[in-house]
Design a protein that fits this description.
49% of the residues lie in helices and 12% in strands. The protein contains 13 helices and 8 strands. The protein has an 8-stranded mixed β-sheet, with helices on both faces. The protein is elongated, with a radius of gyration of 30 Å.
Length: 333
């Protein structure tokens, strides 16, 4: 072999074993990333060898060597795998983090098509405790959660359902921080024929709760983190004497990290259940999974629009799955 041929061989080896740079799909499983990385690397090497071979005027020795290397690389390339339908379905709906991992693992261990396995896995993950309008005695329901998630509207919707069943209702506004919030709840009280009260702190809320005689007392909180003198603290003190439902409100588009932060922020209020709001505003309602999973509380209420009281329903696994499928193509087998 002369000097020129030796130089071409050296160049070929350097090209063959040069590291390849690729971008892995951040949403894919680790094993899928590894296989895809190898496939990309081998495909690039084979392409480079083919281009060199087509331009080369090398003799039979170099041609044979290149052909052998190409065959070896082709043999090493793994066969294409079937697309991960479960993972793709979860990503399309924005479901991520530990909840997605749990659902995917549970779905893989089940039999049937992708849709049936997903339904069973989600039903196993989520605890559902539907909001019940039929109860005896007085009930106190407080709505907590970040500002802007729809606490006031959700409170009004459930108050309206109680009025439609002939129950007396009191609405209590504790949100003196957001402009117009008190007026909005007062307007709902007028329309529903309910009594209206304002409580700016825990002492005032305690007084309202002691005096109110209505069948349902609805407390709309400020959306601020609970503090020692906050209305939420008064609710905790009252729990020793009577039942109080504390509903954590979270929007349907809430991501996993945000759901975890919200759950931590409002944990001192000790939520008893979760309401997912604004289902009509997203095609990826991941909050249906992220919120109850992060809060470790049952899903009780679903809200899908601004109308009072039409756009609210007690949660059920069927309604959760319906909203998760809405606007998206269901997985095929």
């Amino acid at each position: 072999m002369n000097t020129g041929e030796r130089s071409k061989n050296n160049a070929t080896r350097e090209l063959l074993f040069a590291p390849q740079v690729y971008e892995a799909d951040p949403g894919a499983e680790p094993e899928a990333n590894t296989v895809e990385a190898l496939r990309i690397e081998l495909r690039n090497e084979v392409r480079a060898l083919r281009q060199m071979f087509s331009r080369s005027s090398a003799g039979p020795d170099l041609s044979g060597e290149l052909a052998a290397i190409r065959s070896a690389l082709d043999a090493m390339t793994p066969p294409p795998t079937k697309r991960d339908k479960v993972g793709a379905w979860l990503r399309a709906r924005g479901i991520e983090g530990p909840a997605a991992t749990r659902i995917a693992a549970s779905a893989r261990d089940r039999e049937g098509d992708a849709d049936a396995r997903l339904r069973s896995a989600i039903a196993e993950l989520l605890e559902i405790e539907a909001w019940n309008d039929d109860y005896e005695g007085r009930r106190i329901a407080a709505f907590v959660g970040p500002s802007g998630v729809g606490k006031t509207t959700t409170a009004a919707k459930l108050a309206a359902r109680a009025r439609m069943r002939g129950k007396s209702v009191a609405l209590v506004a504790c949100d003196g921080f957001r402009v117009g919030a008190t007026f909005q709840l007062e307007r709902y009280a007028e329309l529903l024929g309910a009594s209206f009260h304002v409580a700016d702190n825990g002492i005032e809320l305690t007084a309202v709760l002691e005096d109110a005689k209505e069948d349902l007392v609805v407390v709309d909180t400020s959306g601020r983190p609970p503090g020692p003198s906050s209305p939420e603290a008064a609710l905790m003190n009252r729990r020793r004497a009577e039942r109080i439902d504390v509903v954590l409100c979270v929007t349907a588009a809430t991501r996993a990290a945000d759901a975890s932060k919200i759950a931590t922020t409002f944990a001192p209020a000790r939520p008893t259940s979760v309401a997912v709001t604004k289902l009509d505003e997203t095609y990826a309602p991941s909050g249906l999974v992220h919120a109850p999973f992060a809060a470790k509380r049952p899903l009780a209420v679903l809200c899908a629009g601004p109308r009072v009281p039409e756009d609210v329903e007690p949660a059920s696994i069927e309604s959760v799955l319906h909203h998760l499928h809405a606007g998206e193509k269901e997985p095929s087998t």
